[in-house]
Amino acid sequence: MPAPTEPPSDRVLRRRREIGDNIRDARLQANLTQERLAERAGLSRGSVIRAELGTRAARVDWLIAIADALHVPLSQLVREPHERE
Q: How many other CB atoms are found less than 10 A from the CB of residue 24?
């Protein structure tokens, strides 16, 4: 595992973007804006944006709050693309 000061691997960056896509898809399915999702999850809009874009590592606590706010299982947000229905 790389040291915390090393940049994330390409695989990690790709997975962040995939998780962000899952979050955005679930948010749009729920017909919510980023701002409304942030309010429901108790996060800043910037945190939701960063999670959707995958530009920063999302904390597990954030992912749980987002899943709860969207009324979806956490596994739906972190599943691999080939696992999508």
A: 16
